[in-house]
């Protein structure tokens, strides 16, 4: 019994790997959030589709597992990488009592890497990836991570920087980082990575604090060495020059 | 004048994106470390090749820049992602005085994502990526990052965990993390990701401390919630159960 958990990358077919494509083609049933299913629509003609709305992740994984238990090959589609805030973990949890299901995680390009490429090269040195969503994580834990990552001079990439209910979370996050980072620290954000309307913006940490972003935005905060070169956000490889 | 900096993913052609492939095919000159050039050999027949040995990164980027200045389209090949310890940053630095060169960074699947998929799903929640190489970064800075990332309960992915000159660095790193993480914290490491001999091993932090790895290994340390499920390393999406 085979169950693929597939990262299709940021959106366009040209950033999905041949391995991901082959796994989708080898599957009988395609599961996933409707928006992600739509991104692979040309590949899945004639296949059975298990669509589920956003946020019903456990239900989505359970239905995919049950489909796999019937002997069909199932593909769970994730945007970006299946293992970065994707379904790869939950799928293993949901299948814990079914060792006969062979779960294969197929990696994809996550927004940290795809967005960094749009802005230049902000994540060339050590970096931390933090989600600002407090749906499943206590906000105090997120604050601690922001604080410690900032103090340790990591480049920082923020996922889920905003939502209707969390309009001021990016501002809160910036205030925490401003305790240990200079206001003119080079930063940037990318909207609609790999999709129509892709747009990268370079700014300072002080400007970022007063910027409104939506949930389809990925945010980057430079480390103490990050500079703007030719309009691009660039982090050097290290702290010394040979 | 066009200069691509291309992440070809972990190794095999099936994990290189069509976008990366197209950029290589569109280029007149291919630059990069010999081992990476070899990985794309079938794509570059008849093209001019600028090979440089390991560690001569500045020379490699300068030569690629000079080739682009002649009007030829140049592709700089990186393994994994071009923007994660790759050449994307240095290329922007080297081309700082040549705004007429259009640098396009083409992202690829980095070892953090590719290796995580081999082990299961260790990076599903907030994570930090740290290189143990102190060639360009003071070791004290690396120690601080390990300490703070560990205290803030990040999942941690280590690049460059060892070399001939740094045989005991992984042990040192584990000792730092053991100050704030339990000895039985689930961990893992993957050798030769995406290449012949790919091998993932799950262990505890205490075991990892006494493990010898080579420079082609990527190491993963779970957070306080990470568990082993069916032999796989799995980090839950959060701290609460709905």
Automatic annotation (TrEMBL), chains A, B:
Signal peptide range in chain numbering: none
Protein name: Precorrin-3B C(17)-methyltransferase
InterPro entries: 4pyrrol_Mease (IPR000878), 4pyrrol_Methylase_sf (IPR035996), 4pyrrole_Mease_sub1 (IPR014777), 4pyrrole_Mease_sub2 (IPR014776), Cbl_synth_CobJ/CibH_dom (IPR006363), Precorrin_MeTrfase (IPR051810)
MF term (GO), any: methyltransferase activity
Domain Tetrapyrrole methylase positions: 2-208
Pathway(s) the chain acts in: Cofactor biosynthesis; adenosylcobalamin biosynthesis
NCBIfam families hit by this protein: cobJ_cbiH
Source superkingdom: Bacteria
Listed CDD domains: Precorrin_3B_C17_MT (cd11646)
GO biological process: cobalamin biosynthetic process; methylation
Alphabetic keyword roster: Cobalamin biosynthesis, Methyltransferase, S-adenosyl-L-methionine, Transferase
């Amino acid at each position: 019994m085979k169950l693929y958990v597939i990262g299709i990358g940021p959106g366009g077919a040209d950033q999905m790997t041949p391995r991901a494509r082959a796994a989708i083609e080898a599957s009988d049933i395609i599961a996933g959030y409707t928006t992600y299913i739509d991104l692979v629509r040309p590949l899945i003609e004639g296949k059975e589709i298990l669509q589920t709305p956003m946020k019903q992740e456990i239900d989505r994984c359970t239905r995919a597992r049950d489909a796999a238990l019937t002997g069909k090959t199932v593909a769970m589609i994730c945007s970006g990488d299946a293992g970065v805030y994707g379904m790869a973990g939950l799928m293993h949890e949901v299948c814990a009592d079914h060792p006969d299901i062979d779960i294969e995680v197929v990696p994809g390009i996550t927004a940290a890497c795809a967005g960094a490429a749009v802005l230049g090269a902000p994540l060339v040195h050590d970096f931390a990836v933090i989600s600002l969503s407090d749906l499943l994580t206590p906000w105090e834990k997120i604050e601690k991570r922001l604080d410690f990552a900032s103090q340790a001079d990591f480049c920082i990439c923020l996922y889920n920087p905003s939502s209707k209910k969390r309009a001021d979370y990016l501002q809160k996050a910036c205030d925490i980082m401003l305790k240990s980072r200079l206001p003119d620290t080079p930063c940037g954000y990318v909207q609609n990575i790999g999709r129509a309307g892709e747009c990268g913006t370079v700014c300072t940490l002080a400007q970022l604090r007063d910027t409104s972003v939506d949930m389809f935005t990925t945010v980057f905060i430079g480390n103490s060495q990050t500079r703007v070169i030719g309009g691009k956000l660039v982090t050097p490889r290290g702290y010394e020059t040979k």
